[in-house]
Amino acid sequence: MHEHSITVFLCSTYRDLSDERTAVLSAINTLKLKHESMEYFGARPDRPIETCLDEVSRSDVLVVLIGHLYGTLVPERNISFTEAEYAEAYRLGKKCLVYFRDENVPVLPKHVERDSEKLRLLAQFRQTLGSRHTVDTFRDAADLAGKVKDALAVNLETLSRQANTRAQYLALIKEGGDAWNNWRHGLREGRESKANGDQEHPIDLSRADLRAADLRGFDLSEVMLNRTDFGDADLSNANLKRADLSGARLAGANLRGTLLEEANLAEANLTRANLAEADLSGANLSFARLVETNFERARLQNCFVYGVSAWSVRASEAIQSGLIISPAHEAKLTVDDIEVAQLNYLMLHSGRIRDVIGGIQGKSVLVLGRFSVDRVEIIETIRAKLRDFNFLPIVFDFERPTQRDFTETVMTLAGMSRFIIIDITNPRATPLELQAVVPNYRIPVVPIIQSGEKPFSMFSDLMARYPWILPVLEYNSATDLAAAFERAVVQPALAQHEKDSKVILKK
After folding, report:
1. Closest by alpha carbon to 368, among 426, 323, 285, 441?
2. How many whole angstroms separate alpha carbon 72 and alpha carbon 118?
3. How many other CB atoms are found less than 10 A from the CB of residue 361?
């Protein structure tokens, strides 16, 4: 008997592989192992995909069966349930045993994919599996069951050791922070002393129940803590750098002074959590729940905040900048306030909200340009100077590659802004957007350009036709730009805004 029972998750389509699934589940039972599969889920309150991924995270090993069907797509995602289950297991570092149906075995026509897009996705999925794992093939249910049974038997000792290791992790946590941190320090020293450069094995505490745990000062950096329950736990001054906290429950948790740099907090529940003085630089907060969350004096820089739900957030004296409110596949759009982040996203996608909330125009300044890595200092200077004058910078960066036409997005943002700053240095995208915005909005536009560069060919025509395009500010460096900012950017823009307002009133 093994000290901890191993759980196997069976991952496949059902319609074409029902006999094979039955045979594999029977083989798993003969090894006295636990199993999870769609046949035994029963009624649950969660969405089907949430149930599947929940069971994947609880399992120790995935058996993946691939036939000639791609399977049902997850709603609103261009991926099948089978591939989504596998992707979650791979992300969590689960052991995966992969089997393809032998191509030489005839199958019924109804069990062969005919949808061209699904055929493409299936081929891509098979290629991914083949590049990551040593794949075996099967001819029929009996052949597959025997192979799965043999493979599980061979891996049983390793799987059992992993389950026991997880139990040891939890036992060590109960001994306290000193014992845990000394153990991790010893692990790192041992790793560094190895000539072959082996990496520290990932510490997996996903789905653990750590409610109300005293974890003050614990080194949990790079630990897998996805969907772990930290409700009301004390994680103050802990090190969670690059930890995977996706889907974790941190409601009511104390994270004061905690290091969360580059941590993955996607879909985490931070309701009433205390993150005062915490460092979340580069953290992923996408789709996180931030209800009455305390970020006072926290550092929120370059965080991904697309899809956050932020209500009654406290962020006084917090350092906030470069918060990315756009999805990863779109042009990068940043703001400098986590509550405004949600507001700006809603205003981009809801005309009614844009009409109701017009007051934001008094503070927002739209910044357009291509800010590649070598020009980061320029955009940071613009942000800092705008904040000095109590403006809210909204930066639309054309540098990120995308197939999307973002003229409409730029026009929406322009309509929300007091004035616009556009960097026309090497303008591969800005001419189109500028030509769309300027004729439709009487909003001051301040063009800036790096010394030695020339404006795009039609720029002089635009300046001649639209007096709210102000003279071009030429700068040599970020320091040069900062020195001239009030004189050549803010003052002319505000003067033009006042002048245009009087013109509009007369009309």
Report:
1. 426
2. 9
3. 14
Two structure tokens written together for 376: 């980061």
Name the CATH superfamily, with its identifier, for domain 7-169: Toll/interleukin-1 receptor homology (TIR) domain (3.40.50.10140)
In the structure, what pLDDT confidence band is assigned to residue 435 with cuts at 50, 70 and 90? confident
**Residue 33 clears pLDDT 90, i.e. is over it:** no
Separation between Cα atoms, residue 354 and residue 430, nearest integer Å: 24
Joined tokens for residue 119: 């055929």
**What is the C-alpha to C-alpha distance for residues 284 and 267, in angstroms, rounded to an integer?**
9
CA–CA separation, 337 and 302 (whole Å): 11
Nearest to 288 by CA among 302, 309, 273: 309
> Whole-number mean pLDDT of the chain?
85
- Residue 257 CA from chain centroid, whole number: 23
Parallel, antiparallel, or unpaired: how do β-strands 445-450 and 419-423 relate? parallel
Q: What is the CATH number of domain 209-321?
A: 2.160.20.80
- Cα distances from 454 to residues 219, 321, 422, in angstroms, run 52, 30, 14
First to last CA, the chain: 87
> Per DSSP, what are the bridge partners of residue 36?
9
Distance from C-alpha of 319 to C-alpha of 315, rounded to nearest angstrom: 9
Whether the pLDDT of residue 63 is over 70: the answer is yes
pTM reported for the whole predicted model: 0.59
Query: How far apart are the C-alpha atoms of 176 and 462, rounded to whole Å?
Result: 67
SS3 percent helix, strand, coil of the chain, rounded to 5, is 40, 20, 45
Whether 59 has a pLDDT exceeding 70, the answer reads yes
Fold match between domain 7-169 and domain 329-507: yes
Over residues 349-360, the pLDDT tens digits come to 555 455 545 555
Domain boundaries 329-507, CATH class? alpha beta
* Distance separating alpha carbons of residues 248 and 228, to the nearest angstrom: 5
φ, ψ of residue 348 to 5 degrees: the values are -65, -30
Nearest to 279 by CA among 248, 312, 247, 318: 318
The proportion of the chain whose per-residue pLDDT surpasses 90, expressed as a percent, equals 50
Predicted confidence at residue 339, as pLDDT, reads 76
Domain ranges of the chain: 7-169, 209-321, 329-507
Residue type, 25: L
Please name the residue that has the structure tokens 């891509």.
Answer: 124
Write the single-letter amino acid at 413.
Answer: L
